[in-house]
Amino acid sequence: MLLCGRFTLPVHAPLVMGIINATPDSFSDGGRFFAPQAAIAHGRALVAQGAHILDIGGESTRPGADTVPDDEEIARVVPVIRGLQDAGVPLSVDTRKPVVMRAALAAGADMLNDVNGFRDPQAQAAAAAHPHCALVVMHMHGEPGTMQVAPPDYADVVAEVRDWLAQRCNALRAAGVAPERLVLDPGLGFGKTVAQNYRLLARLDALAALGYPVLAGLSRKSMIGAVTGRSVDERLAGSLAGALAAVVHGATLLRVHDVAATVDALAVWREVSASQEG
Predict the structure, then answer these.
(1) Domains along the sequence of the chain with CATH
(2) Which of 76, 162, 168, 221 is catalytic?
(3) SS3 assignment, position 108
(4) What does residue 151 show for φ and ψ, rounded to 5 degrees?
(5) What pTM was computed for the model?
(6) Set 162, 168, 220, 255: catalytic member
(7) Is 221 a known active-site residue?
(8) How confident is the model over 70-81, as pLDDT tens digits?
(9) 1, 22, 83, 189: which has the fewest C-beta neighbours closer than 10 Å?
(10) Phi, psi at residue 174, to the nearest 5°?
């Protein structure tokens, strides 16, 4: 089970995390949900489509993205958190800033999703001080603005990412975070080459072996475009294939833009799996 703020989530079957970009410059939806009411309406629509979790972001972390001032990011996400308190699902906030984390938790967030892996001591302290929120610990090389300029030549990308995530989880546990609150994210697209991304996708089981749920976030990303040649708005089929591959190889949570299609794909996958067992 995953302790997630107001909720306790089962992790024996895939969970779908719907993305809400409360930003003007997201790579995937170009600011369609920048206004709070638009973001709130989108969140409710995603829940109706079957999302188990909503992930709200007020700062783009796409390659080359600029940093948003703390107060601006708070102004983007807090109204959305408050507006979705009655949505019936956990609310995650995608941020790497301790001050935003504290504001999000005060507003009612159930999960913190940190692309920086809680490396900032203040972020770790903010997470540890809250007894129930879930934490998504993600691996990222460098910073969003520069991470894809020259991804490192890992000797073994799976082992290095796994060991780094294990170290971060150990540090959080030493700070008082219960293991039932932790989720691992290999950071697909965050300081990795296309080949490294697919190697990690194929070996998510190595991360799952650490004993924590694994989140895969590859929806509409450039790793899909690199294989299919499709533009961002044409990557649904590739994203669904990647999502199913992630589940087969060990992912428990899928962070996606296209919730309804992903829910349908998982329903068919589960039916096939159940038929094999029968």
Answers:
(1) 2-277 (3.20.20.20)
(2) 221
(3) coil
(4) -55, 145
(5) 0.92
(6) 255
(7) yes
(8) 999 999 999 999
(9) 1
(10) -65, -25
